[in-house]
Design goal:
76 residues; mainly alpha; 3 helices; 2 strands; 11% strand
């Protein structure tokens, strides 16, 4: 029996798909963890975990005091 995808993975995969499709471009600012939590109807820690996963995949980069942005793609 298949298990449901973890909410943080669903959010991370959704954002990753938007980055790969070009809907979100390098340098675009992403919503805060709080905003993502509200948008996806999850706890803020779940949204934070999704952002952490995207950071580990090197798809996003954080700028202290400024926010989180789509990372530049290698070779661009």
């Amino acid at each position: 029996m298949p298990t449901a995808e973890a909410p943080y993975r669903r959010i991370a995969n959704d954002i990753a798909a938007k980055i790969k499709s070009g809907e979100l471009k390098p340098g675009d600012k992403l919503p805060s963890s709080r905003e993502l939590a509200e948008e996806y109807g999850v706890h803020m820690n779940t949204a934070y975990r999704a952002m952490s996963l995207l950071h580990d995949r090197e798809l996003i980069t954080g700028q202290p005091g400024r926010g989180t942005y789509v990372a530049e793609r290698p070779g661009q």
